[in-house]
Design goal:
215 residues; alpha+beta; Ganglioside M2 Activator Protein, Chain: A; 3-stranded antiparallel β-sheet; globular; binds 2-acetamido-2-deoxy-beta-D-glucopyranose; signal; DUF1091
């Protein structure tokens, strides 16, 4: 009898400890999502631009992926609104290091590479955002379009969902008119593609009709 009550006492006293331990573990497993702090990001003003950007389509490339599963990749064209990109990708692996690549092409006869290229390791970039104007610009666009994905590593072990569109205000003041293609790619350290997509867009200068009327 005495022994039993001692056991009960023992169980009762250890239970909160076990419970606390479980809570801590559950908390760790659920990997707290900490939004990236990036005070120097660009706040894009809604000023008018001498051009309009028209996205014709978003296309996922290099599919199927070996370390991830593309669940959805859809361009939704909308009347009087920019095309919407609706994408989801399941990434079962945990990512503590992964790379982000952006290459832009300008179409003359064929697509020629534009001298604006990003190749950065995301986890360390989030910890120490660089001052490089181009990566700062692209990251700032991502803060506006996919803010829920801008959290510190580890990444992966989740299904990412995003639905976004690109606005004129995200572009630099001087954009040459013409057709462009932007290739975006996320890859592992071992160069395995997690997600890759292309954005096809054209830039049209405005003011042609105005100048015709003026003259
Ligand atoms: C992956 O996520 C699940 C649920 O969010 C969690 O239980 C598991 O511990 C995570 N695995 C790793 C390796 O982080
Ligand atoms: C920018 O201006 C357009 C048109 O006036 C408006 O529809 C849009 O909501 C504005 N966006 C922001 C972020 O202020
Ligand atoms: C997946 O792996 C196969 C075989 O190693 C390779 O040929 C293919 O290029 C890989 N695909 C991607 C998207 O990395
Ligand atoms: C994106 O697609 C998913 C799955 O088809 C859908 O549930 C969701 O509503 C879509 N999001 C938008 C903004 O269209
Ligand atoms: C990495 O993969 C990409 C796409 O699969 C390929 O074009 C590139 O040549 C690869 N780079 C290296 C260094 O293997």
């Amino acid at each position: 009898m005495k022994l039993a009550s001692k056991n009960v006492l023992y169980s009762a006293s250890i239970l909160p400890v076990v419970a606390a331990h479980l809570i801590v573990e559950a908390y760790c497993d659920a990997k707290p999502i900490v939004p990236v702090h990036h005070p120097k990001r660009i706040k894009f003003a809604n000023e008018s631009k001498p051009f309009t950007v028209h996205v014709t389509k978003y296309v996922c490339t290099e599919t199927p992926y070996n370390e991830s599963e593309l669940l959805q990749c859809k361009t939704i064209l909308r009347r009087n609104k920019p095309a919407l990109f609706n994408i989801s990708v399941h990434v079962p692996i945990v990512l503590n290091t992964f790379f982000f690549e952006v290459k832009t092409y300008y179409r003359l006869n064929d697509y020629q590479q534009f001298p604006a290229e990003i190749h950065t390791e995301v986890c360390s970039y989030f910890r120490h955002p660089s001052e490089d104007i181009l990566s700062r610009h692209i990251m700032s666009v991502m803060f506006e379009t996919v803010p829920h994905l801008m959290y510190y590593c580890p990444h992966g072990n989740t299904t990412y969902h995003a639905a976004f569109w690109i606005e004129d205000r995200f572009f630099p003041k001087s954009m040459p008119a013409g057709d462009f293609r932007m290739d975006v790619r996320f890859r592992t350290v071992r160069n395995i593609t997690i997600l890759a997509y292309r954005i096809y867009f054209s830039v049209r200068r405005q003011g042609i009709w105005k100048s015709l009327i003026e003259w």
